[in-house]
Amino acid sequence: MIYDFLIKINFYRIAWIFVMFVAYSLFNSLFPSDVYVFQDIDECEFSKEDLSDMVYTVKLVFNQKLLCSYDSRLGKYVGYDEYGIRNAEHYNNQTWKMKQQKEELETICRANARLYIKSEKRKVPPVVTVRSNSKARYGQLTTLECHAYDFYPQAINVTWLLDGSEVTGDVVSTEFMDNGDWSYQMHSYLELVLHRGVPVSCRVEHSGLEEPLVTLWGETFNNVHRRQLKI
């Protein structure tokens, strides 16, 4: 998959903002204030899946004012005011600093971008169960539940089929629920009057499935996996 947009990766030091409060007398004359905020903003940007166009930037900001920045395309720091220019010259003359910045293009940006892309490509199919919320009786109003668990990525389509035809009314579905482990769950509810000989099933479509998964009510009715729903 080729990305047609810029992605900012939020792993470790990428796109992180480290804020610290400083009370150096050096800045009293330059930035009169009671509190000082210094930000070191590191960003990795790319649009190609092979990461050949990866760009690593570092921005040093003081009280919302950009002092100097490093750009991997230039291979050096650039200052934007008197203090920033002095700071940039200082960094550019430090061999170890410049070597570190070049290495971080690989160790911070590309290494974590590969993890990001690998995670984005990961596909885990859902586990699906269908059951009634109470003892089901033919001829009486019943609510059936279709539960899809532990799938990734988030996109999923859950529909109900009555005798093979899609049901559009009397269906309520929950929002996606994040399990906190890069997997999701979703639940759909159908209210209907059951009739003998008329099959009811839940159809689930997901990128982790080779084809839509159709689960007939009754197949899991007598062997329901007990799970605690996320509230």
From TrEMBL:
Q: Which domain of life is it from?
A: Eukaryota
Q: Which Gene3D superfamilies match?
A: Class II Histocompatibility Antigen, M Beta Chain, Chain B, domain 1, Immunoglobulins
Q: Which GO terms describe its cellular component?
A: MHC class II protein complex
The keyword Glycoprotein appears for this protein = yes
- Organism of origin: Cyprinus carpio (Common carp)
Family matches, as InterPro entries: Ig-like_dom, Ig-like_dom_sf, Ig-like_fold, Ig_C1-set, MHC/Immunoglobulin, MHC_I/II-like_Ag-recog, MHC_II_a/b_N, MHC_II_b_N
SUPFAM superfamilies recorded: Immunoglobulin, MHC antigen-recognition domain
- Subcellular location, record wording: Membrane
Q: How does it sit in the membrane?
A: Single-pass type I membrane protein
Swiss-Prot/TrEMBL GO biological process terms: antigen processing and presentation; immune response
This protein's UniProt keywords:
Disulfide bond, Glycoprotein, Membrane, Transmembrane, Transmembrane helix
What protein name is recorded for this chain? Ig-like domain-containing protein
What the entry lists under PROSITE patterns is as follows: IG_LIKE
Ig-like domain span: 125-215
Keyword set includes Glycoprotein? yes
